[in-house]
Amino acid sequence: xxMKAVNTPVRKKDAMALVTGKPVYTDDIAPKDCLVLKILRxxxxxxxxxxxxxxxxxxxxxVEYVFTHEDVPGTRFTIAGQTFPELSPxxxxxxxxxxxxxxxxxxxxxxxxxxxxxxxxKLIKVTYEVLEPVLDFTRSxxxxxxxxxxxxxxxxxxLEPDKDRNVVCHGIEERGNAEEELAKCxxxxxxxxxxxxxxxxxxETFRAYTHIDVNGRLNVVSxxxxxxHVRKTLATALEIPKSQIRIVxxxxxxxxxxxxxxxxxxxxAFVSWKTKRPAKIVYTREESQIAASPRHEMQVRVRAGADExxxxxxxxxxxxxxxxxxxEHTPTTIGLTGAKTLPLYTSNAKAxxxxxxxxxxxxxxxxxYRGYGATQGTFAVESAVSQLAEKMNIDPIRFREMNMxxxxxxxxxxxxxxxxxxxxxxxxxxxxxxxxxxxxxxxRDMGNGKVRSVGVAMxxxxxxxxxxxxxxxxxxxxxxxxxxMQIGATDMGTxxxxxxxxxxxxxxxxxxxxxxxxxxDTDVSPYDSGSYASSTTYLTGxxxxxxxxxxxxxxxxAGAQMIGCSSEDAEFNGREVFVPGTDQKVSLKDVANAxxxxxxxxxxxxxxxxxxxxxxxxxxxTVEIEIDKETGHIxxxxxxxxxxxxxxxxxxxxxxxxxxxxxxxxxxxxxxDVVHSKAGKCxxxxxxxxxxxxxxxxxxxxxxxxSSYEPTGPFGAKSIGEVVINTPSPAIAHAVYNGTxxxxxxxxITGEKIVMGLKELEKDTGK
Amino acid sequence: xxxSLWINDKLxxxxxxxxxxxxxxxxxxxxxxxxxGCETSNCGLCTVLMEGKPILSCSTLALRAEGKHxxxxxxxxxxxxxxxxxxxxxxxxxxxxxxxxFIMNVIAMTRELEDPTExxxxxxxxxxxxxxxxxxxxxxxxxxxxxMKKGAK
Lengths: 767, 153
Prior knowledge:
The complex is a heterodimer.
Chain A: H1 15-19, H2 26-29, E1 35-41, E2 47-53, H3 55-58, E3 63-67, E4 98-99, E5 105-111, H4 114-123, E6 125-130, E7 167-175, H5 178-184, E8 187-195, E9 207-212, E10 218-222, H6 227-238, E11 245-248, H7 266-275, E12 279-282, H8 285-290, E13 297-306, E14 312-324, H9 330-339, E15 351-360, H10 374-391, H11 396-403, E16 410-411, E17 417-418, H12 424-435, H13 437-440, E18 443-445, E19 450-460, E20 471-477, E21 483-487, H14 496-507, E22 515-518, H15 536-563, E23 571-572, E24 576-578, E25 585-587, H16 588-594, E26 604-609, E27 618-628, E28 634-644, H17 651-670, E29 700-705, H18 728-740, H19 751-765
Parallel strand pairs in A: 1-12, 10-11, 14-15, 21-22, 28-29
Antiparallel strand pairs in A: 1-5, 2-4, 2-6, 3-5, 7-15, 8-13, 9-10, 9-12, 13-14, 16-17, 18-19, 19-27, 20-21, 20-26, 23-24, 24-25, 27-28
Chain B: E1 2-7, E2 10-15, H1 22-28, E3 47-50, E4 53-56, E5 69-71, H2 77-90, H3 99-112, H4 118-124, H5 136-152
Parallel strand pairs in B: 1-5
Antiparallel strand pairs in B: 1-2, 3-4, 3-5
Helix pairs in contact in B: 2-3, 2-5
Keywords (chain A): Molybdenum, Oxidoreductase
InterPro entries (chain A): Ald_Oxase/Xan_DH_a/b, Ald_Oxase/Xan_DH_a/b_sf, Ald_Oxase/xanthine_DH-like, AldOxase/xan_DH_MoCoBD1, AldOxase/xan_DH_MoCoBD2, AldOxase/xan_DH_Mopterin-bd_sf
Protein name (chain A): CO or xanthine dehydrogenase, Mo-binding subunit
């Protein structure tokens, strides 16, 4: 297919509305007469709510309702935005008598404005029976404290859960005898890594508003990545038929996975359904830090062994994941710590093993964050691989070249998929050249107390969840021959409305501006699992192409009938249906308009796609940093990334995805810490304590594309959204080692830790 | 308390509680471009101009604007569009939620600094956080915009 729009930097369709500040987000369009909701939250990490005194609160002028666990339905559900049957436990209630972390919901307060509701919150007296919490996830399994003792806990598809031991999931996957092969290796590393519960910190916090429509149905306008899963979750939580619920997605101020979880929608949905009045909830930044859906804290042990020739022969990854108080996304994220790391090195190895376990604790429940477990696993495995190379005295890039997956290799640890499109070798070479590796590795003393050093890492992700995700697209032809395109995937700022229109434009031989794309409305949009798991470009892109093909056939049929020829003889070039080699033709405009008068031609099509495979995008990155040995301050000098996402659909948007993902990864590597008090209170509850990178912190980020061609992808495309966040932590940790000799296996790597580490090192070496 | 001020050159008179925050007041008056991203004056999403100078409306009492001229993006549509085109051409708006505050500060910067260096640009705009873009595309947009401005002179 000729590419006119694809592989160009088309402007995002909504760009000008966004940059001129138009009111397009949830809170901009919420009705003025909404009840304003706030959640009263638990000050205890583990407690039973014995009594809630609401009289005084209800007397505050403007306050209308206070709801507690006694008022809500009793059916447990999961807020994970996943396809049914979910792998996440049904372990939540809208409000539960047992609160399981500091910040867990105790009561919903509703009133006419924020001031009155805030005042009422202070007047509610709650009596708690305080229970002992489990805060350390390495001590949760078989702890005498059980976090989910309830008998109505269930899980649609369980991976060996054992809630009476606080275990959410457990599993082992092995090929060959990994322990045996590891023992035979000449060189082995065995290290354990620790990553924190990073927050997505999208600029628009969680929010939704709800109202009852003219047909008495619950309408939800939500800043969500998963409208159809929100409908499913709310139906279960409210114990009402799905037919009674409609979800609409307006523009979204970022998600990064946070909004793949139904974090806040159940509160206004419950209030509107119960009171039949409009309601809205807007989370504060503090709430988005303490009671949201962050990355899973993980402990990952990696054992990797190579033979005398430097070939990796065995690799074992063991992951322990902290679910927090509820188990959404725990059994699924954890799998990626192995499935997105082991395949990079084990296509030709003798054996590998992956063992995982997710456990409950009395901390904030974790969820989905860009990378979805692969990020944590990549930090661990890439760090271990660099250390193994060092141990063998082989350049770390050379060592990767000797061992990495190449096009045509079978990735046993990745569902046995073949790397049909893999330019990782070219990516690594490119990243090496970009930074000038050979002249900079490992470090240069700058002579002023500062040292400049380089590091490297590589990674892979997937493109959709194979055999699970589905995506549908419908396109109809309007008068004069314009197109309405409906997708069920949600543009959360990433620009999927635009890139899918680019694909459709090339398929239909028209201009991007001739295709009108509508946001998701579950009443009218075709079904889509949602925008997560790096699925939109790949899977919804596939559906776009299929839909266009079907529509083209219908246009040709209608046109051929007007011409008076067989549709097999006619073709469509975007402007007209014509018979090649003759002057017989009819314009699309005439075909479209004729379909609206005495016609039975349905110039509409809707096709669905699902994929048996999840082709991985690949990426290699090198980084140069400058370390101030006095202060421990790290300055990012140059971050060089080479990405293989297959064909790049929108050259601008893909680049910005990569740059943005890398910046988030830099935050994870250097600043973003999650600190709790001994009683489980989250200290990093604002942007004052939880530092995300500013434009002074990110340094220079350079991205280049080394494209392969994915045969199953639309126009040869794979995904881009998630793979880009994985490399900064291991690459920067590697550079820090190369500059200081300090190996950091826990994130973030702060200046303080570097200074302390250097002091220890001096003591040890007796300098 | 009684307050009178100019919002985008329109005189507004009202009676408000003394603790009303300017950000909330402006949104109530229909200036929806003004966004809240935090409660700790860290993100810059709520940036507006008071007497032509950028301020954080989240940490300004509405009463502090008594008798003053407040400009939001609703009142700077032409300039927002002019720079916005450059941002859009880089894909540097992404989700767009931080764009109004960021662009207000870019406009203030171009009024205040003659031919700023890259470091000056970064420092001037350091208080405008963005979680989507990694800032590189925004820097490209600013450079191109400043080039255009220079060429136009």
